[in-house]
Amino acid sequence: MDRMASVQADPPRIGLTGGIGSGKSTVAAILVDLGAVLVDTDAIARELTAAGGAALPALAQAFGEMVIGPDGALDRERMRRLVFADATQRQRLEGVLHPLIGLESDRRAQAAAQHPLVFDVPLLAESTHWRRRVDRILVVDCEESTQLQRVVRRSGWTEEAVQRVIAQQAPRSSRRAIADAVIHNEELTLAKLQAEVAALWAHWLPPA
């Protein structure tokens, strides 16, 4: 479904979101192949929390040096346990990371000049800030049971761990409610998924 009746003169700014295991990253890669510039907020978060990352001093101050691993990067597993156990810890983490992610996203968007932009934002449905920054929202969706199977297969996590992540994310209905288009990535071959994304991209991309 497409709520945007008119085509804008500027290249579109598309917000891409979906639950863990939905296939969102695959769709992002397809969009890049079609000519989009991708701003991946998860990738930015990983860079910020890698060894020497800009977020590490603030994270150490907020949570203690224990959250920094022996390699000098954020101990992601320890942090995951903290935020799953205590919602206030999650809010504290977001308070450190989200402003930094926003600044770096802006920098990358400005560097893209007149290229179409895709912002890959897992928490887009939870954030009015991100919804105001994009022209259209694309949601990649699938059944929760499919999410569970995919993540267990690719990551080696337990089903319980995956279910905790799913429970922390917005419900599927909330994501679909804000969407201009939904790709139902259920039993789609890669070729069919590529075709669906390409058709939507051709519809949304302004004429040259």
Please explain how this structure is put together.
- This protein is of the alpha/beta class.
- It has ten helices and five strands, in the order βαβααααβαβαααβα.
- It has a five-stranded parallel beta sheet with strand order 2-3-1-4-5, sandwiched between helices.
- The chain is globular and about 50 Å long.
- The two termini are 24 Å apart.
- Residues 1-8 have low confidence and may be disordered.
Furnish the topology, listing elements before pairings.
Blueprint: E1 13-18, H1 24-33, E2 37-40, H2 41-49, H3 56-63, H4 76-85, H5 87-111, E3 117-120, H6 128-133, E4 136-141, H7 144-155, H8 159-168, H9 172-177, E5 181-184, H10 190-204
Parallel strand pairs: 1-3, 1-4, 2-3, 4-5
Question: How would you sum up this structure in a few lines?
Answer:
The chain has 208 residues and is α/β, with parallel strands linked by helices. Helix content is 53%, strand content 12%.
- CA distance, first residue to last residue: 24 Å
What is the assembly state of the chains in this entry?
Answer: single chain
Which sheet architecture does the biggest sheet show?
A: 5 strands, parallel
Strand order of the largest sheet: 2-3-1-4-5
Helix content: 40-55%
Mean pLDDT: 90
Per DSSP, the total helix count is 10
Structural Rg:
18 Å
**Beta-strand percentage range:** 5-15%
Q: Please provide the ordered H/E string of secondary-structure elements.
A: EHEHHHHEHEHHHEH
Overall number of strands = 5
Spans of 5+ residues with little confidence (pLDDT < 50)?
1-8
Structural class comes to alpha/beta
Shape: globular
